[in-house]
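pasting input
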Amino acid sequence: MKQQIEINVNGEVQPAIIEPFDTLLHTLRNELHLIGPKQGCDTGGCGCCTVLVNGESRYSCMTYTMTVADAEITTVEGLADGRNLDHIQQAFIDSGAVQCGYCTSGMILATKQLLSINSKPNDAEIRQGLAGNLCRCTGYHKIIEAVKLASGQTTGE
Amino acid sequence: MALTTLQGFSQPNSVEEAVAILQACQDSAMVIGGGTFIHGLVARGLVTDVEQLIDLSRLNLNHMTFDENVIRLGASTSFASLEASAEIQNISLLGALREAIAYPPRQVKNAATIGGGVAASCPYLDMPIAFLALDAMVCATGPDGTREFPIDELFVSLFETNLIPGEIITEIKVPQPSEQSASSFEKMETTANDLSIVSVGVRLSLSGGSQSGARIFVGGGIGEVPFRCCEAEAVLENSELNAEDIKRAATAAKGEIEPFSDHRASAQYRKHITGVLVRRCLARVANQLS
């Protein structure tokens, strides 16, 4: 049975019409037309659907929208301030940490979560922090470089 | 795949309210803690008839208290909040719990709860094995009030618990033994997103240089419920935990389990890996206690 809810996404409270079984990924993409979160494995294993729920990374494919209807959701679309990219987004560009791009939004949000609890992660901590995100192009080396750049541990030169 | 049979969704604000809703819905309802497990079942077509979801996240069952004799953990405590707790990180007894919650990715740790991890009664999950090794007690509240029982009684069969209709798990209690104790957990899986081939949880207690009351549990593809390796535990009674005894206990463990063969691993491989993991876990714990 469809019902209308209000959901706070990227700082904006928006109406959405959802079924009780809709996942957050479905609501974001099909109702709110935010296509930054991607559908990958759809079983909570690959990470390209990653969003932030109250600042914590979650797999939106395995989160029922109803359980987070009162939370603050952040997708990759909510990171930039107008035309100014978030420093993590910029670091991914500067490091060339993008190949096909399908995993990128999830990687960036997983990085956001990682740096919120560990501002200067070492290589092992970065790998552990991004363990829930797969890059099918296997471009992990550049992604780790991007996280180090974003955390101010390298200058990118 | 979506759970299209779902008609309603509720977020009760108290345990009493949750029990009342659950009782009214009977078999058509499913309780979720963090909701990470049900999704896997739905995606594999294993859950198709749930009409009501009852989300327990508003019950505020996320307390952690540390008394001298017992550690009390609210059922809705997430893996991430366990990981962030200095007490959880520092109590040597809780090694099995720490090592079990280290496996999932951050996105799962943020959502998954300890109550959900045991209430699913799935021997492939890590929480049952860790809490069995720790001799945990389960507190449950239902229409007839609150009761407390050893966690091994919870696991009746695959996806089947001893909870009566309307009952929910509210707390898991870990007793702190008076002897010096430590525990460990390790598992093997084919991929990070797959069910475990086998998993092992052990706890040892040392008093006057002699071990007593060992716990060795095996999960994964070994049966409907986690398996307790009583013969291996017996090998370690009064042991000084030398390498020879540890090896004998590991051999006993792989001899007494009765795993099955499937597309993930053969029964023979599961036995072999169980021996390896039991030996590693025991060696780690013995090293901590020495």
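fyi The mean pLDDT of chain B is 94.
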